[in-house]
C-alpha cells in the first residue's frame, strides 16, 4: 500500500509546480521523470495487472504472458497462459500468505502459479464456462484459498475449495452488466463493480448487495476494497469515488480514464490512459510526470510503486 507524503516532501513538490484548482480537488503538477525507473521487459505485450507475492512481483498480460523481475529485467515465465492457448490475462491476485499467484483472462482462463516450484496449475473454465474473466480475488492460504472470479457475463464464479473441479458456483449480483473488477478485504467480505455504474458488497462471499453509486454517469474500471467503510473506485473522465460506509465522495482528477486505484487510508495512487499517474494524500493531489505516454493499466505498492501498461511498459518509483 502507498504511504502518505511527509510534510517536507509535500513542500518540495509544491515548489516544483503550481497549484491548480480542478473541480473540488487541488492538483499539484510535480515529480520529475527521473523519479521513475523504466524497467526492461522481454515482452512487448500489454501488461494488465501486477501483484506482490513472497517471491517478488508478477505481472500478467496479452498472449497469456506471466512475467517477473530479475537482475537483467523482467523475464517471461510463461507466454501461453494456463491453457497454453495464448489467451490474454487481465487480472491477478495473491493468497494471503503470499505463496501463490492466481490470474484470469479471456475464454475462461484461470491459473494458479506456485513460484516455489515454478508450477502452473490450470483451473480454467469452471462449470464449463468460457466467458472472458476480467479480475480475480483470492483469500486464505495457499492450497486452501477462496477464489472469486468476475467477468463479462456479469456473473461472479466462486470456489471455497481452492478452485478444485466440482467446487465452483456462481452468482449474478446485478443486472448482468460486465464486471471489470473485484477485490476482497477479508476471507468472504469484499466488493465488485460493474459497467452500469454499480458497486456491490458481500460479507459471506455469496450474497451481494448494491451500495451505489447513484448518478455516477461514468464507466468504472478500478477498485480497491480495504474494509466495509474504506472503498475506492476509479473510472472514466478522471473520476475517483471513495466510500466511508455511508456516503460516496467524488473527486475529479483531470480528464484521463483512471484504470486502477490502490489506497491506504487517505493516501494512494491512480493510473490511467496516456501515461497518467497521480498520487493523492488527505491534503493534495499530485500529478507525477512519467517517462511514457503509454496507457497504464495497474499499480502495485509494496514499499515502492510499480506500474504496468501497454507495450510491456513497467515503471518503478
TrEMBL record:
Annotated InterPro entries: TAT_signal
The organism's place on the tree of life at top rank: Archaea
Family annotation (PROSITE patterns): TAT
Name the UniProt record assigns to this protein: Uncharacterized protein
Taxonomic source organism: Halorubrum ezzemoulense (Halorubrum chaoviator)
Amino acid at each position: 500500500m502507498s504511504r502518505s507524503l511527509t510534510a517536507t516532501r509535500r513542500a518540495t513538490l509544491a515548489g516544483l509546480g503550481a497549484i491548480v484548482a480542478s473541480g473540488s480537488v487541488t492538483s499539484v503538477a510535480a515529480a520529475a521523470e527521473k523519479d521513475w525507473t523504466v524497467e526492461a521487459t522481454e515482452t512487448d505485450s500489454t501488461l494488465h495487472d501486477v501483484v506482490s507475492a513472497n517471491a517478488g512481483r508478477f505481472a500478467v498480460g496479452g498472449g497469456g504472458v506471466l512475467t517477473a523481475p530479475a537482475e537483467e529485467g523482467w523475464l517471461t515465465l510463461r507466454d501461453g497462459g494456463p491453457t497454453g492457448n495464448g489467451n490474454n490475462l487481465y487480472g491477478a491476485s495473491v493468497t494471503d500468505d503470499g505463496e501463490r499467484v492466481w490470474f484470469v483472462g479471456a475464454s475462461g482462463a484461470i491459473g494458479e502459479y506456485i513460484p516455489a516450484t515454478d508450477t502452473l496449475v490450470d483451473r480454467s473454465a469452471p462449470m464449463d464456462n468460457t466467458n472472458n474473466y476480467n479480475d480475480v480475488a483470492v483469500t486464505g492460504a495457499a492450497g486452501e484459498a477462496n477464489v472469486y472470479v468476475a467477468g463479462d457475463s456479469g456473473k461472479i464464479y466462486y470456489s471455497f475449495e481452492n478452485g478444485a473441479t466440482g467446487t465452483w458456483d456462481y452468482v449474478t449480483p446485478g443486472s448482468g452488466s460486465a464486471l471489470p473488477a473485484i477485490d476482497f478485504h477479508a476471507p468472504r467480505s469484499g466488493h465488485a463493480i460493474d459497467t452500469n455504474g454499480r458497486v456491490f458488497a458481500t460479507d459471506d462471499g455469496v450474497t451481494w448487495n448494491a451500495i451505489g453509486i447513484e448518478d455516477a454517469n461514468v464507466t468504472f474500471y478500478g477498485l480497491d476494497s480495504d474494509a466495509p467503510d474504506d472503498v475506492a473506485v476509479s473510472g472514466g473522465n478522471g473520476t475517483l469515488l471513495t466510500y466511508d460506509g455511508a456516503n460516496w465522495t467524488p473527486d475529479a482528477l483531470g480528464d484521463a480514464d483512471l484504470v486502477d486505484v490502490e489506497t491506504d487510508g487517505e493516501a494512494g495512487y491512480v493510473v490511467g490512459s496516456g501515461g497518467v499517474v497521480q498520487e493523492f494524500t488527505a491534503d493534495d493531489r499530485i500529478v507525477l510526470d512519467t517517462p511514457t505516454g503509454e496507457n497504464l493499466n495497474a499499480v502495485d505498492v509494496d514499499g515502492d510503486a510499480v506500474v504496468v501498461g501497454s507495450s510491456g511498459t513497467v515503471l518503478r518509483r
